[in-house]
Amino acid sequence: MAKKKAQSPLAAASPKSGQINRQQIDIKLGSYGVCPASAIVDPGLLPRVQDYKRQTASRMIPLDRREITKRIPTAEYHASRKVDGEFTVLVYRDGDVFTVNPGGTVRVGLPFMAEAEKLLRDAGIAHAVICGELCVEHADGRRERVHDVIRFARAPESQTDLDQLHFRCFDWLEIDGAAPTNYAEAWQRLQKIFEHGQRCRPVDTTLAKNASDVEKLFTSIVETDGAEGLVLRSETAGSFKIKPRYSLDAAVIGFTESTGDRVGMMHDLLLAVMRADGALHVLCRVGGGFTDDLRRELLADLKDRVVSSEYAEVNSDHVAYQMVEPRWVAEISCLDLVSQSTRGAPIQRMTLDWDAAERRYRVIRRLPLVSVISPQFVRMRDDKRVSVDDVRIAQVADLVEVPMLDRDAHQMTLPSSEVMAREVYSKQLKGETMVRKFVMWKTNKSDIGEEYPAYVIHYTDYSPNRATPLAREVRVSNSAEQIQQLWDDMKAENIKKGWEKR
C-alpha cells in the first residue's frame, strides 16, 4: 500500500503518452522520480545522448588564460559561461517531459520540467531534444557546484531542494524532426524558445569577435564573478574550453626512462593521492614542465628508490613504470578533472597499499577517481611528505564529485567469480599429448566498472609439437546468450574428430 501511495503524485508530472515505462520509476520526493534508461520506449535515445557527449568532448580544446591569444584563431565566437553541473538532455515528446544523462539516469517530475513543457508548447513545438546542464541555483547567489546537483537529485530533503534544480540549455539535437545546420542557428532557436524562462533558460552567452574580447570576458565572468570557466564555439575556428589551472599535490610512485636521443633522462612520473584510509589512489601521469637538467637529476635519484610491485602500468609509449617508494611529493597543475566517461561511467583508478617493511606495493582494487586533463609539473614539494594531510584525495573531491570517497578501500573486497563451465580435451599425436581447455565464468563484477565484463571464456591450447607450445584466447561479453553462443562456437571450431573429453 505504501508504494502505491508514494507514486500517486506522479500523475501530474510524469509521461502522459507512454514515452517511459511508469512501473520502473522510483519516486524520490513528491512528483520527482528517477528510472534507468531501459524504461524509455525509444531505445535509440540514450546512444544519441552518449554520442553527442563523446563527439562534443573530443572536439573541445582545453586551454588556460595564458593560451587565449596564442591558440585561439581570429573568428567570431559564441562565448558562454561554463556551468558547473551535470550534462543532461531534456526530452519533450507529445507533452511528455523528462531528462536523460549519458550514464542512463532518467528524471521526471522536476519543477523546471513543467516550465519547459509550457515554453515548448507555446512555441508550437511537438518534439524536442535539448542539450544542457542540470545545475543548482542558490537563492543567495553562490556559484553552482556539481556536488549540489548530485546531492539534491539523488536524495532531496525538501521541495526547496527540487526547486533549486534548474536547466541551462546550450544546444539541441532535434526540434520537430530537424537538426540545426550550425551553432548560430541552434543558439538563436534556443533564445527564442527559452528567453523568458526562469528555471529553464539558455546559458549566459555573448558574441566575442576576437581574442581580446575573450580575455575581457574571462576576466569578468571567471576571475571576477567566479564562474568555473568559459566555453567558446565557432563554426570556422572550433570549440574551446578555457578554465583556470588547478593545483594539486601528489605522491610520486613511479617513473619511466626516456629513449633515443633522450637516454639518461626521466620521461614521466606516475602520481597518486592518498585516501583517508592510507591507500594510495593512482591519479595520473605527468611528463610536461620538466627541464632537461631536472629530468637527468630526477632519473638518477629515482633509480635508487625502485621497489617491487604487484601493480604494473605503462605510459603512452607502452613502457612500464618502475615503481618507487612513496617519499616525494610533486605539485602539478591541470586544466580540468573529469570524473565520468562520455557514457557516464565512473573513471576507475587502482588503489595500492604500500608495505614499507617489504618495500612493496600491493594491489587493493580499482575505485572511482578522475581523468586529469593537461597535467603539468610545477615543482617538487620538499616541504611536504606523503601523508593523508599533504597529498589528500580531498584536493580532487573539492573540485569534482568522487563516488565512494569515504569508503575504506581495504574493506571493499570484490565479488567472487562463478565458474559456469569447464571442459578439458586431449589428443595423442606422434607420441605427444595435446590438450585443449575451455573455462567459462561469470565475473559478478560488471556493475563495478567498465573494465569488468559480465562473462569471460578462457581457451587454452597446448601442443608440444609447435614452435610455441602454449596458446591462449579470451572472449568476453555482457550477454548471457552471447557468451553461450561463443562457447558453443569455440568448441565446434576447435574440438573435432580424435579429441577425447577428460
Structure in words:
- With 502 residues, the chain is an alpha+beta fold.
- It has three domains: 2-41 and 84-202, DNA ligase/mRNA capping enzyme (D-amino Acid Aminotransferase, Chain A, domain 1), CATH 3.30.470; 246-411, OB fold (Dihydrolipoamide Acetyltransferase, E2P), CATH 2.40.50; 418-501, no CATH class.
- It is 22% helix and 36% strand.
- The protein is built from eleven helices and 29 strands.
- The chain has helices spanning 2-7, 45-59, 68-71, 111-122, 146-154, 159-163, 183-194, 211-224, 292-303, 394-397, 480-494; strands at 26-29, 32-36, 60-63, 77-82, 86-93, 96-100, 105-108, 127-136, 165-175, 200-202, 205-208, 229-234, 238-242, 246-257, 266-274, 280-286, 308-309, 322-323, 329-334, 336-338, 348-355, 360-368, 371-373, 376-380, 418-429, 432-442, 455-462, 470-477, 500-501.
- Strands 14, 15, 16, 17, 18, 19, 21, 22 and 24 form a nine-stranded mixed beta sheet that branches.
- The radius of gyration is 27 Å and the shape is globular.
- Mean pLDDT is 92; it is low at 1-14.
